[in-house]
Amino acid sequence: MFKQMTKLAAAGALTLAAAAAGAQDFPSKPITWIVPYTPGGITDTRSRLIADEFGKALGQTVVVENKPGAGGTLGLEYVARADPDGYTIVYGTLGTLAAAPSLYADLRYDSLEDFESIHMMGASPNTLIAYKDTPYNTVEDLVAYAKEHPGEVTVGLAGIGTGTHLASELFANDAGVEFLQVPYKGSAPMLNDLIAGRLDIAFDYPVSTLGHVQSGSVKVLGVTSADRLELFPDAPTVAEAGFPGAETGSWSGIFAPGGTPPERVEILADAFATAMESAAVQDAFEKVQSEIWMMRGTELDEFVSAELDRWTKIIEAAGIEKQ
Q1: SS3 for 296?
Q2: Residue 156 φ then ψ, to 5°
Q3: Cα-to-chain-centroid distance, residue 305
């Protein structure tokens, strides 16, 4: 019996030693960061900025690789099937982790089971903007007009399942109005149509709308943040306008394939936290009114689970059918 216990203890010590050695050797090659959206957008440019600081903290190169498609879900599917060795991570969002299970009939990943939470990035509010010549100049005016003209006000969607799409659904549901949805393959073509007057309203991030608002091409009616934004000090929050249930932000974080060794997840999380605390990243987020959230591990797991439950209910209430 004593010999058996000694053998078990020795085996356990070897396992711990192997894990420690594996952690010490990690990472020994570049990390691939999958961004499930097209190059050039805010998600891509933000990822590349953070990747530089992330790589410095890791002492290893972090390579951003774009795998767009199906509202970002193709990139998530790819990582869900990747080797869980810590060398492949993905940019996960409200859309791909909390909303996608209710939006896509053939989704080939489980938001909670197929990923390991590493670290949150943060959240960005949306601006509610309108074509400059629309007959409404406030959120209240828009809601009144939409109720008088059900299904006539067109709202642009910069991709099905994106944070901006979900913000529009949440607002319509809370305000009790019906918009005519016009889907696009990104923010740029949507904004082009809005500026040209071929679209009535849209929800988009401050960084995308600021220049157009400043030029007078579009007007901002409100913001979905809890507080007013410094970039648009005269624009009320949706709560101030009487629609507190429409308050939301599009959050994002990084995740690894399910089964990635916890010691490697911790190394990645520590380095990512350092990156998010860097002056370059803090300054970039502040400029576009985005918040940095220092959330990781179990706390992030619980957050994603709660968001999945929340958006499942919202999408069901809105009557959105799976694609």
Answers
A1: strand
A2: -80, 145
A3: 15
CA dihedral 36, 40, 43, 45 (to 10 degrees): 120
For residues 23 and 305, give the distance between their C-alpha atoms in angstroms, rounded to a whole number.
Answer: 28
Q: Which domain CATH number covers 280?
A: 3.40.190.150
Cβ atoms of 261 and 269 closer than 8 Å: no
Nearest of 275, 267, 252, 251 to residue 87 by alpha carbon: 267
Say yes or no: 38 and 108 in one domain: yes
Angle formed by the axes of helices 279-287 and 42-58, nearest 10°: 160
CA distance 224 to 292: 17
Tokens of 217: 């091409």
Q: Are residues 138 and 237 in the same domain?
A: yes
Please indicate, yes or no, if residue 72 is contained in any of the structural domains.
yes
DSSP assigned state of 120: E
User: What does the alpha-carbon distance between residue 233 and residue 213 come to, in Å, rounded to a whole number?
Assistant: 12
Same domain, 82 and 141: no
What global pTM score does this model have? 0.82
> The domain containing residue 258 runs over which residues?
22-123+250-318
Q: Are 144 and 150 in contact (CB under 8 A)?
A: no
Does one domain contain both 235 and 276? no
- Say if residues 257 and 115 touch (Cβ distance below 8 Å): yes
Out of 216, 246, 276, a domain closes at 246
pLDDT tens-digit series, residues 264-322 = 999 999 999 999 999 999 999 998 889 999 999 999 999 999 999 999 998 888 788 88
In a domain, 304, yes or no: yes
- Per-residue pLDDT reduced to its tens digit, 222-252: 999 999 999 999 999 999 999 999 998 889 9
| pLDDT tens digit sequence for 61-75 | 999 999 998 889 999
- With helix as H, strand as E and coil as C, how does 183-251 read? ECCCHHHHHHHHHHCCCCEEEECHHHHHHHHHHCCEEEEEECCCCCCCCCCCCCECCCCCCHHHCCCEE
d(CA 18, CA 98): 36
